[in-house]
Design a protein that fits this description.
alpha/beta; six-stranded mixed sheet; four-stranded antiparallel sheet; binds magnesium ion; binds adenosine-5'-triphosphate; Rossmann fold; 13 strands
């Protein structure tokens, strides 16, 4: 039986009259990779920041290993590593110095700090660059440093806020591999992303969040199956419309019909279709 490592219960976060979160609830199993997906402003970062103890909810609870986060804040912070949406490394310091400072902030013994730095630089393939200043690094390498810095104090749960935003496809895959390796070594991961292929490839389960509420949670494949198997894109003059089918023969029939007047394309359904369907329903 899988252990629930993280439970988020009815979170509400208000900024003046704006509800950033409006009753968000979900559970994450130990060693799972759980992805939060939703449009800009849906509340993803707010959820991660509350779980990391960086901001308090207006109401609602977070439990880590069944312990109330706010009642065990110092302990909870030791169990969690957060990788922010925006790179907040010290640009003038080297990779090693950035990791070192994190160790000091978490009150790790010096011998452990040195050991962890060596392990993590090796793990992320950054050993040769340990003395490089952050400002000299490519965006992909900065993201790597950001990830291993959050692992310095050996957190049980890693929160990744858009870990591959703005990276090229080759570097994104390298980061995916790093993330999967972190999960394989036993860390539970909650990540947010706007790249549906990323969630489809990495996540065990995904949650769709709209307007501060979790709408539905399932595996990427189950979400796709619920929509069907084939997607037919029809490029009408004023909009691109997609039709979904379970059977290929039915899709091909429509393909022939529409191709007389429009550009059409038949393909497999992806998680991006699921996301777009939710957006359309809400519009
Ligand atoms: N400090 C703040 N003060 C006021 N409003 C805020 C603050 N932080 C977030 N918000 C608002 O709360 C809502 C949720 O923001 P949040 O950053 O959690 O969304 P998100 O899902 O992470 O979006 P994105 O995909 O763009 O990163 C948004 O409407 C945002 O403008
Ligand atoms: Mg965000």
């Amino acid at each position: 039986m899988s252990i629930i490592i993280l439970r988020v219960e009815n979170l509400i976060k208000k900024y003046d009259s704006l509800y950033a979160l409006n009753g968000a609830s979900f559970e994450v199993k130990e060693k799972e990779l759980f992805a939060l997906l939703g449009p800009n402003g849906a509340g993803k970062t707010t959820i991660l920041r509350i779980i990391a103890g960086l901001t308090n909810p207006t109401s609602g609870k977070v439990y880590i290993f069944q312990k109330d986060l706010l009642k065990n804040l110092i302990w909870a912070k030791s169990q969690i590593g957060i990788i922010p949406q925006h790179i907040n490394l010290d640009l003038e310091l080297t990779i090693e110095e950035n990791l070192f400072i994190h160790g000091l902030l978490y009150k790790m013994p010096l011998s452990l700090i040195k050991k962890r730095i060596n392990e993590l630089l090796e793990f992320a393939g950054l050993n040769e660059r340990r003395d490089s200043k952050i400002k000299e690094l490519s965006e992909g390498l900065k993201r790597r440093v950001l990830i291993i810095r959050a692992l310095m104090h050996q957190p049980k749960i890693l929160l990744l806020d858009e870990p591959t935003a703005g990276l090229d496809p080759h570097i994104r895959r390298k980061i995916w591999s790093l993330i999967k390796n972190i999960q394989t070594r036993g860390t539970t991961i909650v990540l947010t992303t706007h790249y549906m292929d990323e969630a489809e490839n990495l996540a065990d389960r995904v949650a769709f969040i709209f307007s501060g509420r979790i709408i539905e949670i399932d595996t990427p494949q189950n979400f796709i199956n619920k929509l069907g198997s084939y997607a037919l894109d029809v490029y009408f003059s004023d909009e691109l419309k997609t039709f979904y089918f379970n059977e290929k023969t039915a899709a091909e029939k429509e393909l022939i019909k529409y191709s007389k007047n429009y550009f059409v394309s038949l393909r497999k359904i992806t998680l991006e279709d699921v996301f777009l369907q939710y957006v359309e329903k809400r519009l």
